[in-house]
Amino acid sequence: MYVKQIMETTAGLMRILKGHFQKEDVAPGGHVTKSNIDLIYEMSLEKLDCFKLRDFLAKSKLSQKLNGFLARQPLAEREEGRFLRLESLMRLLTLLLTKDQSLRVLLVKGDSLPKTTLKTFCTSNRGVFDEIRKKALAVILAGGTMQPLQNFDDVVACYRPEEVTFYSGEHVISDEQFTCGLVTQTAAGELLLYDMNHKTEHLADVTGEIIVEISNSIQGGCVYFFQSFAYLSTIQERMVQNGSMKLIEAHRKVFFETKDSKVNTFDLYSAEIARTGNAALFAVMGGRLSEGINFGDNLARAVVVVGLPYPNVGDPEVAERMRAQDAAARGKQGRRSGQDMLTDICMKTVNQTIGRAIRHARDYAAVFLLDSRFARANICGRLSAWVRRRSIPLTPPFQPFIEDFFRNINKKDLSLIHISEPTRQAEISYAVFCLKKKKLLR
């Protein structure tokens, strides 16, 4: 009985995917969004007991047996996507049968049937979190980068206002160890605006000049974060064409993040810093190097954020989440709109990017935020509190500002030198540090 249900479910899923792929009025990349209820009825699953089916699979170990069969098949056939793993099917069914009304199913047409995809996502966190709230006396959400706090509106809505407490501690560093320059215009007074309507060759040239000045004024690692791989490539090509890249390469080696996961750009960059003390890294906000990577100490004495990494509104998942947010906010004062949601996502990415630079109590770095929109209250107000408090408006030239900052750092007598890596194999990890007299930066 259960095997027959699995076959019928698989046939229903393939019928949905094949039907979307065969639509002549839908081009590759075209998509349609459905509710989980719609898909359940289209796949004829309304009478299916997914949980009993899941228990059967666990006891029979049918999934493991089929995976063993799959492993013996020719690699070409496996890569063509002719086989559907039962674990994936069961995860999908469990999601489809959830009571969360914010669940959406996204069908995207590919160049071929195997490349036509089905994806599930929620337009709100409330349904998932409400299950946790019902089972817990108290819930604590803790993290290093939680601002903007508006990202938690769905969670807060599960409680009465008097039941929620927000706490944000001050950073462990002193004011002298960090500074953030809000660079909104050029030395000639031209606004820096990195939106889709203003990314001209002239803006790329001006950005290159700023990068060169910062790079040649700072001893240590300089990391430049861009909105996307496409714009990083644009800046790279323009700087090569106008010769500004050579001005950086005369003082330090330059590395570029790529989409190729096999290329470990961070290790190459770190090795160069260890060898020479100087290097430059061009990376992407929201990429592999902007989250969870430790750019402590000399790896990032300067971090430059170029533009605001707003999510792509052309992405069907983003568009659906915006529509749901606008619908929830309609007629309700104080609820954030879909555009507010995009700004919150954008600024969370910016805050995570900035946080790569300061990794311990004696670390220090200068951060530069390039975009005229950073002067707006709704943008600046979403920066992490410890960054916002140390932010000042800044206009080129930057060298006097940079020299003053590092001169104050050099007045401190001690520097933290990391001399061993944590031992992650042991049950208790440790790391060894020592304090030594700081050399003056030249």
Q: How is this structure best described in words?
A:
- This protein has 442 residues and is an alpha/beta fold.
- It is built from 17 helices and twelve strands.
- It has helices spanning 2-21, 36-42, 50-60, 62-71, 75-79, 86-96, 126-135, 153-156, 201-217, 229-241, 244-249, 265-276, 316-329, 338-354, 377-380, 385-388, 399-410; strands spanning 31-35, 103-108, 117-122, 178-183, 221-226, 253-256, 279-284, 302-306, 365-370, 391-394, 414-418, 433-437.
- The chain has a seven-stranded parallel beta sheet with strand order 6-7-5-8-9-4-10, sandwiched between helices.
- Helix 12 (265-276) links the parallel strand 6 (253-256) and strand 7.
- It starts with a helix and ends in a 5-residue tail after the last strand.
